[in-house]
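[Automated response] Your request has been received and processed.

Submitted sequence:
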Amino acid sequence: MSQELLNRITIDQDICHGKPTIRGLRYPVDNMLELMASGMSMEELLADYPDLEKDDFLACNDYAAKLTRIKSIYRLAS
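Generated structure:
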């Protein structure tokens, strides 16, 4: 995974309740993954979300792939 792509995924408690989003915008990674999984093409996604770039969607895929390699997830106290 490219660190440049990974840097496109941000987590901020003040944006979307701390869910991972694309570049600090209000586009949650999980929503974009669902759209891709539903069969939307890259062209359709880019047409529907003109403020996003192809690399944003690639970053979502890379982020999801990285999460599948995590052996354990622990919630930290806030």
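Summary generated for your ticket: Helices lie at 3-6, 29-37, 42-48, 54-68. The beta strands are 9-10, 21-22.
If you did not submit this request, please reply to this message.
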